[in-house]
Design a protein that fits this description.
CATH class of the largest domain: Alpha Beta
Strand order of the largest sheet: 3-2-4-1-5-6-7
CATH topology of the largest domain: Rossmann fold
Distance between the termini: 31 Å
CATH superfamily of the largest domain: P-loop containing nucleotide triphosphate hydrolases
Number of domains: 3
Bound molecules: guanosine-5'-triphosphate, magnesium ion
Number of strands: 7
Low-confidence stretches: 91-109, 326-337
Structural class: alpha/beta
Largest sheet: 7 strands, parallel
Radius of gyration: 20 Å
Length: about 325
């Protein structure tokens, strides 16, 4: 039903119009400071109308583990069961895997009638963790799609960052790579909600990797009632375990919702993003002016609205250039393309 107070773009995005989604993504990925006010308004309007059960799933893991292929398999699974999916994918020109896997719908093997929206991010945004633009893109996609997938690559920071973007993190491991021990040392095995030993079709080497991983995980018992990340053998190539993976993701969602973990995580994600914006825009000075990172964190917690609203409040408190919000001037920033 049309709502008189809803900006036209927001209304079109919520209907899932591809062009509107693409336009909204262009706007929120714009890094020019003068566009911030309009972004704040757009993201606020979208978040307000986002069904809470819409879920962001992060897919992370070392290069070549098959994250994109697995994402494609999940997309097929979800669309086959009637759910639309949004995804931020790596640049199709990725040299390693020929990467066109997701940029190209034909290779993705998703029918034209299936509701999938894939946003390619620039290669620079996939390295070294999660860019603020990715956070904003995820807000747009999540407003529309029951499922949003975010792929990040790397061992280390990207796994840690993805936790503040996704509601559920899936770690994809390459069989026989010996990464597991390294992951444990880096504290990465504590992050994912679901672990996938991928390329299960490789047989014994995959089974061995799962056994190794399970024995490492057995060393760190989880407190009663806590979610215990399952270790699944999956092959995107044969389809083995894909439905099970989707089921475990859903199961975790139910658990996180029931225990309040989901809400807590989204709350923390908002703060992380606000501080990131403050630092990105004003550097160390931004944090210093509000009394350091911890103080900034607490101040941000006391604010309402989206991460951009929290950031704006912090900037104002710091006596730094205030960021106009709704009705405070600075017209809608538009892009010249
Ligand atoms: N045997 C086997 N190979 C697979 C499977 N899934 C993907 N691969 C292969 O693994 C390679 C990497 O796949 P991608 O999906 O591009 O992996 P990725 O983790 O997204 O790679 P980057 O984005 O470059 O880090 C490709 O050659 C795939 O064909 C699988 O289930 N079984
Ligand atoms: Mg990939």
């Amino acid at each position: 039903m049309p709502d008189a107070g809803v900006p036209p773009l927001v209304e079109r995005v919520l209907k899932g119009e591809d062009r509107a989604v693409a336009e909204a993504l262009d706007r929120v990925e714009d890094t020019r400071p003068e566009t911030l006010a309009a972004q704040r308004e757009l993201l606020g309007a979208l978040l307000e109308r986002t069904p809470p059960e819409h879920t962001v799933v992060g897919i992370t893991g070392p290069p070549g583990a098959g994250k994109s292929t697995l994402a494609a398999a999940l997309i097929r699974h979800w669309t086959a069961t009637g759910s639309a999916v949004g995804m931020t994918a790596v640049d199709p020109s990725s040299p390693r895997s020929g990467g066109a896997l997701l940029g190209d719908r034909a290779r993705l093997m998703v029918g034209p009638q299936e509701r999938v929206f894939i946003r390619s991010m620039a290669a620079r945004e996939r390295l070294g963790g999660v860019a603020p633009a990715t956070r904003a893109a995820v807000v747009v996609l999540r407003a529309v799609f029951p499922w949003t997938l975010v792929e990040t690559v790397g061992v280390g920071q990207s796994e840690i960052d993805i936790e503040s973007v996704a509601d559920c993190v899936v770690l994809v491991l390459q069989p026989g790579s010996g990464d597991t021990l390294q992951f444990m040392k880096a504290g990465i095995l504590e992050i994912p909600e679901v672990m996938v030993v991928h390329k299960w079709d490789l047989g014994a080497v995959a089974e061995q990797t799962r056994a190794d991983l399970e024995s490492i995980l057995a060393l760190t018992p989880s407190p009663p009632g806590a979610w215990k990340a399952p270790v699944l053998g999956v092959s995107a190539q044969t389809g083995h375990g894909v439905a099970d993976l989707a089921e475990r993701i859903r199961e975790y969602g139910t658990h996180a919702e029931r225990t309040g973990r989901l809400e807590e995580r989204r709350r923390r994600a908002r703060i992380t993003w606000a501080l990131e914006l403050l630092e990105q825009r004003y550097g160390a000075l931004g944090l210093e002016r509000v009394g350091g990172r911890e103080a900034a964190r607490q101040l941000a917690e006391g604010t309402e609205g989206t991460a951009l609203d929290a950031f704006s409040a912090l900037a104002t408190l710091a006596g730094l250039e205030p960021v106009p919000g709704k009705g405070e001037g600075s017209g809608r920033g538009s892009r010249s393309r």
